[in-house]
Design goal:
Blueprint: H1 2-6, H2 11-20, H3 28-36, H4 47-60, H5 66-83, H6 88-106, H7 112-126, H8 134-160, H9 165-193, H10 200-207, H11 211-227, H12 229-235, H13 237-254
Helix pairs in contact: 2-13, 3-13, 4-5, 4-6, 5-6, 6-7, 7-8, 8-9, 9-10, 11-12, 11-13
């Protein structure tokens, strides 16, 4: 209700989906555009959201030191995971994010493959039926693709191209990371949904860099709106602007 009061539609519904996992209010035409362009993953709460939240909290609490901050960060990650419904992808992300935060706090290297295996083992032990959950399968496959495919792809890019820092990071976050996730999930996507989007790499290249601003700006508007609606409208203008950009790009590419 707060998001709907501080942002116009359809941006409010998109922010509700990205921040809270409540995507039922997104207009059918907009949702279809996301699905057809292979960008609906930004609406599903998973590792991307948890990574942004963890990074934001670590910076916010940097003044008290990592050893004191990590319990607060981990507690917030799991609180957020349960507030948005505790679906398998977000629980998997919360477990892996917590292990990463803990590793940083104690001065150990985080080994992603072990973290993924640990998360899958704990979740399947708690509920064996999670193995047949499509969201869990896609989340697990996408994460495995990032772990196994991104490092060699980055090394290949560095060997072939000399790119400045900002452009290099953008290519990494969009083409390499998104491409690795899509390659890894392609068999599952074809099996479960029977769809393949050829426009997906371009769409993701254009909208992925805007998503941290969507989440952080939208979150600021949401928290401020809980205090005062006018304050929420002011604080949420950045989140609204980037959400509007995301929707316009996706709908334009679909048409």
């Amino acid at each position: 209700r707060t998001l709907l009061s501080v942002c116009p539609e359809p941006e409010a519904s998109l922010l509700s989906g990205i921040l809270l996992g409540l995507d039922k209010g997104i207009p059918a035409g907009v949702m279809e555009s996301f699905r057809r362009t292979g960008t609906s993953h930004i609406i599903a709460i998973s590792g991307f959201n948890i990574a942004i939240l963890a990074g934001f909290l670590e910076r916010l609490l940097s003044g008290i030191g990592r050893r004191r901050a990590w319990p607060v960060v981990v507690a917030c990650l799991f609180l957020y995971a349960f507030l948005v419904g505790a679906d398998p992808p977000v629980v998997r992300a919360a477990v892996m994010g917590s292990l990463y935060v803990l590793a940083e706090a104690v001065g150990r290297e985080a080994f992603s493959l072990n973290s993924l295996a640990f998360a899958a083992t704990v979740m399947s032990a708690a509920n064996p039926e999670v193995l047949w959950d499509v969201g869990f399968q896609l989340s697990f496959a996408a994460t495995l693709g990032l772990i196994l495919l991104v490092p060699p792809a980055e090394r290949w890019l560095r060997g072939k191209f000399r790119l400045p820092g900002a452009l290099g990071n953008m290519l990494k976050e969009t083409l390499v990371v998104t491409g690795a996730a899509q390659i890894a999930t392609l068999p599952l996507t074809l099996y479960h949904f029977g769809t393949l989007s050829i426009i997906s790499p371009i769409a993701n290249f254009l909208i992925i860099p805007a998503q941290p601003a969507v989440m952080i700006g939208g979150g600021a508007g949401l928290l401020a709106g809980l205090i005062s609606e006018p304050l929420g409208k002011i604080a949420g203008v950045v989140g609204w602007a980037y959400a509007a950009y995301t929707i316009r790009v996706v709908c334009l590419l679909y048409t």
